[in-house]
Amino acid sequence: MRFLANENFPADAIEALRQEGHDVVWIRTDSPGISDPEVLSRAQTENRILLTFDKDFGELAFRTKLPATSGIILFRIKAPSSIVVAQKVITAIALHEDWQGHFSVVEDDKIRMRAL
To answer: pLDDT at position 62, please?
Structure first.
């Protein structure tokens, strides 16, 4: 899958996704400091699913109606380290193939998906 990882996404999770064969672009190294609307626009333009820990993207997609059909995955998980985050991200991503076109919230005990 093609992902755009927001600046707040941990490096260990980026590396784990890449090792699983995913195409991941990371804002922290590619375009640090760009605004949330710019991040969402880039995900849309490049047809990448946005990975983030920032719940503001739900508001951008639903309230301001910015285009987001490429998909957004918001992680709301508890993890004591970036290595644990990486493991949880890999596990969650493997559970679905239909991330595209959804606003998804990944929590420790469930995944909620809503069509965009």
So the answer is: 80
SS (H, E, C) the chain: CEEEECCCCCHHHHHHHHHCCCEEEEHHHHCCCCCHHHHHHHHHHCCCEEEECCCHHHHHHHCCCCCCCCCEEEEECCCCCHHHHHHHHHHHHHHCCCCCCEEEEEECCCEEEEEC
* Distance in angstroms (rounded) separating the CA atoms of residues 1 and 42: 16
**In angstroms, rounded to a whole number, what is the distance separating the alpha carbons of residues 109 and 104?**
14
Query: Apex CA 80: angle with CA 52 and CA 21, to 5°?
Result: 50
Closest CA to 103 of 76, 68, 67: 68
Q: Counting Cβ atoms within 10 Å, is residue 56 exposed (0-12), middle (13-18) or buried (19+)?
A: middle
Q: pTM higher than 0.90, yes or no?
A: yes
Class of domain 2-115 (CATH, top level)? alpha beta
